[in-house]
Amino acid sequence: MDMDMKVIEQMVAQALKEMSVQQPQQFAAPKVERYGVFETMDEAIEASVVAQQKLLFSKMEDRQKYVDTIRAAVLKKENLELMSRLAVEETEIGCYEHKLIKNRMAAERTPGTEDLITEATTGDNGLTLVEYCPFGVIGAITPTTNPTETIICNSISMIAGGNTVVFSPHPRAKKVSQMLVKVLNKALIEAGAPENLITMVEEPSIDNTNKMIEHPKVRLLVATGGPAIVTKVLSSGKKAIGAGAGNPPVVVDETADVEKAAKDIVDGCSFDNNVPCIAEKEVFAVDQITDYLIHYMKLNGAYEMTNRDQIEQLVALVTKEKGGPKTEFVGKSAKYILAKMGITVDDSVRVIIMETDKDHPLVQTELMMPILPIVRVSDVDTAIEYAHEAEHGNRHTAMMHSKNVEKLSKMAKVMETTIFVKNAPSYAGIGIGGEGYTTFTIAGPTGEGLTSARSFCRKRKCVMTDAFSIR
Ligand code: NAD
User: Fold this and answer.
1) 206-234 burial by CB neighbour count: b if 16+ within 10 A, else e?
2) Which of 148, 149, 209 has most ligand 1 atoms within 8 Å of its beta carbon, as the pocket-test mutant?
3) Is 0.85 surpassed by the pTM of this model?
C-alpha cells in the first residue's frame, strides 16, 4: 500500500512537471490588448475603419450608451484625477485643480446623440427627411493646452455622430493621451461597443499627423491648435474643421460694475494658468475707471508691475526674439514667472498686470500665461476699436464689462467673435458658470463655432413621395 502511494505520488509529480513545461506550448499566447493604441498610423486608421462600419449599423440607443460610457469612465474619481495630474506633469502646462474642472465639464456637458435633430418636411408630395449622418473616420489633431479635454469632447461628439476617431495628439501630451484612449476603449469594450472606436499611434509626431491628413480613408480632419496646423488641414483638399488661435480682449467701460469686473477678469485670466484659447489676454479700460479697476484687481490676486524696465525684462523672459511665447513659460503660474525674475510672492497672486500702450507685444501676442496688460483709453468706442485690432481677425472670443446695452451690442457686432461674454469671466462662454453646452474645439475659421455632434456630420436627405404626410 505504502509502495503504491509512493508510485502514485511520483506519477502525479511527473505529470505536474510535464504540464508546467507543456502549458505555454499548448495554449495560444494571450491577446495583447491595445485598447486603441497602435504602432503605425496605417494600423490605427484601418482599425478605425472596421470599427466605424460596426458603429454605422448600431442602434442610436447603443451610440448614446457609448457616449454615457465615455462620460462615466472620465468621471470615475481615479481616472479624472489621474488624467488631470498626468496632463500637468507631462505637458508642464496649467493647473491640476482647473484641469479637474475642465475634464469634468467636457465629460458632463458635451452634447450626445440628442444633438442630431432631424428636419422633416411634409406636403402633397410626401415626406422628406434631412438627417445628420456620419462622415466615417475622422482624423483629430489635439493641442498640448487641453490634451484630455479635447479627446473627451471630440470622442463624445464624434461617436454620437456615428463616426470613429483617430487622434493625433501633440507629442508632448503623448502619455496622457494614450492613457485616456486606453481607459475609454476599455470601458467601451466592457459596455459592448465595437473595439477601436477611438485610436491613436504609440508615437505621435508631425510625420504621423501628415500620414493621417493624407490617408484616403480619413474623411474629415479636425484641427484644434495654432495657426500652422489649422492652415495645414485647410490646405489638405479634404473637408476640414479648424479650431484655431485667439487673443481674447476685454473691454471695461465707465458703466461697468468695476469691482465685479476686476474679480471676473482675474478669475478668467488665471484659469488653468491662462492656456484656454478663450481666456482673457489683454484689457482695454476707459480712463475714468482704470485706477479703480487696477485697485480691485490687486485685491483679487493681481500683482502690478509699474517699472518700465521690469516690464521689458518680463517680455524678454517670456517671449522669443522673433515673437511668440517661449514654450517653457506657456501655462506656468504667475508665482513661477515672477520667481524667475527674482520676485517672491505667495499663492494668492494669480495674475501679473501692467499698464502698456496698445501696440505692446504683451497686448498683441497670444501668450497663454497669466500676464495681463491693461491699456488705458479715453472712451469706450476707442476701447472697442483697439480690442478689434488686438484680436487680429481671429473672431474667436471677446469679453465686455458694461451696463450700456448699445455699446455691448456694438462690440458684439464689431468683434464678430464665436464667443462674446458679457459681464462674466471668459469661461462662462464654455458653460462654466454660463448657460449652454461645453466644447474644447471652437471652430472660428471654418464657422462651426462651438462644435458638437452635428458639426461632425453630413446632412443627408431621404425622400418618400406621395406618402406619410398625414395632415
Ligand atoms: P500647436 O499648434 O503647437 O499644436 C496643436 C497640434 O497641432 C499638436 O497636435 C501639434 O503636434 C500639431 N501641429 C502643430 N504644427 C503642426 C505641423 N506643422 N504639422 C503637423 N502637426 C502640427 O498648439 P498648442 O500649443 O498645442 O495649443 C495651443 C494653440 O491652440 C493656441 O494657439 C490656442 O489658441 C489654440 N487652441 C485653440 C482651440 C480652439 O478651440 N479654437 C482650443 C485649444 C487650443
Assistant:
1) eebbebbbebeebbbbbbbbbeebbebbb
2) 209
3) yes
Atom of ligand 1 nearest to the CA of 204: 11
Calculate Rg over the CA atoms of the chain.
Answer: 27
243 CA from centroid of ligand 1 (Å)? 9
> From ligand 1's centre to the CA of 142, what distance in Å?
7
For every residue of 101-145, DSSP letters joined together read HHHHHHHHHS--GGG-PPEEEEETTEEEEEEEEE-SEEEEE--SS
Is 275 in contact with 102 (CB distance < 8 Å)? no
Nearest to 434 by CA among 454, 419, 418: 419
User: Strand, helix or coil at 300?
Assistant: coil
Distance from Cα 103 to the centre of ligand 1, integer Å: 18
Residue nearest to atom 34 of ligand 1 (CA): 245
pLDDT digits (tens, 9 = 90+) for 319-336: 999 999 999 999 999 999
Whole-number Å distance between alpha carbons of 352 and 372: 6
Ligand 1 pocket test, pick from 110, 141, 146, 419 with the greatest ligand atom count within 8 Å of Cβ, gives 141
What span, in angstroms and rounded, lies between the C-alpha atoms of 209 and 60? 31
Q: For 443-462, b where at least 16 C-beta lie within 10 A, e where not — what string?
A: bbbbebbbbbbbbbbbeeee
Map grid coordinates 485610436 to a residue: 199
Residues 6+ apart with CB under 8 A from 6: none
Q: What share of the chain is helix, strand, coil (3-state, %, to 5)?
A: 50, 20, 35
Torsion-angle region of residue 466: left (phi > 0), alpha (psi -120 to 50) or beta?
A: left
pLDDT band at 7 (very low <50, low <70, confident <90, very high): low
**Eight-class DSSP state of 245:** -
Atom 19 of ligand 1, residue of closest alpha carbon: 206
| Amino acid identity, position 216 | P
C-alpha span between 36 and 200 (Å, rounded): 6
CA distance 271 to 149: 14
pLDDT digits (tens, 9 = 90+) for 267-324: 999 999 999 999 999 999 999 999 999 999 999 999 999 999 999 999 999 999 999 9
Give the distance (Å) from ligand 1 centre to CA of residue 97: 23
Q: What torsion, rounded to 10 degrees, do the Cα atoms 270, 272, 273, 276 define?
A: -90
Residue of 373, 388, 272 lying closest to 315 (CA atoms) = 373
